[in-house]
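lol forgot to send this yesterday, sorry. struct tokens for the thing we talked abt
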């Protein structure tokens, strides 16, 4: 790999971690307070599991977008896969802001569903550019599927009780 490739790889990985870092600013504050008080669905992973999983996923995501980028943005399909990757990464950080920062369970559900669809589109378009680029995103899609289940479960289990009107 030449120097240009190394620079692209470093930028790709650092950018994914930057998005994760932005999201974590909102997540860390809410986990021991707001999130700790919520009812969680069955099979919720322990809190300690999220850090190592996301670290691994951000590395895989960075390598994936690097592999796409290496094909040249003027190459057919590359620009679409590249643009979809960055769009879903922005939405990834935005989900943390909405769910944890704004404490919006319903807003989180809407955001994570759109995020999941964007990730799926990114996986499909990345596979068209590079088999490895698409394959490296599969664990991310699976983990966001789990996160979607958790977000929907938290939303359903923590809805305010309906008040009855007594006549």
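and heres what i got for the seq, position by position
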């Amino acid at each position: 790999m030449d120097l240009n490739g190394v620079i692209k790889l470093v930028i790709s990985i650092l950018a994914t971690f930057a998005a994760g870092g932005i999201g974590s600013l909102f997540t860390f504050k809410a986990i021991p307070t707001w999130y700790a008080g919520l009812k969680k669905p069955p099979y919720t992973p322990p809190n300690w599991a999220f850090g190592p999983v996301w670290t691994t996923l951000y590395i895989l995501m960075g390598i994936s977008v690097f592999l796409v980028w290496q094909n040249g943005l003027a190459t057919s399909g590359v620009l679409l896969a590249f643009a979809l990757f960055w769009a879903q990464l922005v939405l990834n950080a935005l989900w943390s802001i909405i769910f944890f920062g704004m404490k919006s369970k319903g807003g989180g559900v809407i955001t994570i569903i759109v995020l999941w669809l964007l990730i799926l589109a990114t996986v499909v378009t990345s596979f068209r550019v590079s088999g490895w680029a698409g394959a490296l995103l599969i664990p991310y899609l699976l983990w966001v599927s789990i996160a979607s289940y958790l977000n929907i479960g938290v939303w359903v289990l923590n809805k305010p009780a309906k008040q009855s009107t007594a006549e």
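The radius of gyration is 18 Å. anyway ping me if u want another try
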